[in-house]
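Summarise what follows for lecture notes:
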Amino acid sequence: MPAKDRTFDAVAAYGSEHWVAARFGRSHDWLKRERPRLEAEGFPPRDRLTGYTLKADVDAWLAKRRRVADPAGRQDFPDRIGGVNLAKL
């Protein structure tokens, strides 16, 4: 990663090629080599205006590729029923 790559900041909406490679847990060289194949599989291309990749698109692509769902958790119930705060019970 370059020393001052601001795309690693949490507030940055776009990620550099180094950020994208890190998101995969791979090297920048790997990404340069594999990006055409990834894009052929629907991976988001770099934005033409910024030259960066939208982080949300990267995360959405990764989420879409998941094969195992999250384990069943607790069901969401309303906090109140008929004016009664259920969290206080």
